[in-house]
Write a structure and sequence with these properties.
CATH class: Alpha Beta
Structural class: alpha/beta
Helix content: 10-25%
Largest sheet: 7 strands, mixed
Number of helices: 7
Pfam family, one: Peptidase_S51
Shape: globular
CATH superfamily: Class I glutamine amidotransferase (GATase) domain
Radius of gyration: 17 Å
Family: Belongs to the peptidase S51 family.
Protein name: Dipeptidase PepE
CATH topology: Rossmann fold
CATH architecture: 3-Layer(aba) Sandwich
Enzyme class: hydrolase
EC number: 3.4.13.21
Amino acid sequence: MKKLLIASTSTVHGKAYLEYMLPELSEHFKGINEILFIPYARPSGITYDEYTEKAKIGFGKINIRIKGIHEFKNNFEAVNNAKGIFVGGGNTFLLVKQLYEHKLISVIKNVVENGVPYFGTSAGSNITGLTMQNTNDMPIVYPPSFNTFGFINFNINPHYLDPDTNSTHMGETRETRINEYHTLNTTPVLGLREGSWLQVNGSKVVLKGKLHARLFEQNKPAKELPPETDLSYLK
């Protein structure tokens, strides 16, 4: 049975890396002492080793060891032997390109569908949907496909931002861009605000955290969904 935590972000204001999620992560990875970290989306300016070290510090607070996939000689064995998987944030285009180049899309999907707990933040959450088309990132590289894991039956827009009513900026809002997406696409999009996450158990998908999320569906008004909303019905 699938078991995922899909978080908008790794870090919320005023807290250290992953700190706000540690109670959830402790339960999510209960009984697991080491998980596989995939740093392919690495934020600009840091190496895989530096990114992995950051994850080690975060998970060390709940006594879970981290090992980066780049530290293994065989990527397929690393995934197939993983007790848990964490995919961090950064650039989604870069992440997806690397996953395809290393031929890991189907391998990761298979182990997660068969019960290996998955945790994603930002780009790592973006790829849990049907496609990566609702990322906020710049296309700094060209992945062979926008199709991603499809663990949930809709797309994620992480770091969802509401329009600032006090701003003089007259350009596009996040909502405008998602509505543009829906002029050509039917897949629902969930705008996840910072500090919110989805908890997936099998086919059940529930919104968690203290904030509402914003749901966009083609030819329908956007809806505000409160915490504990069950999103399993989305197709």
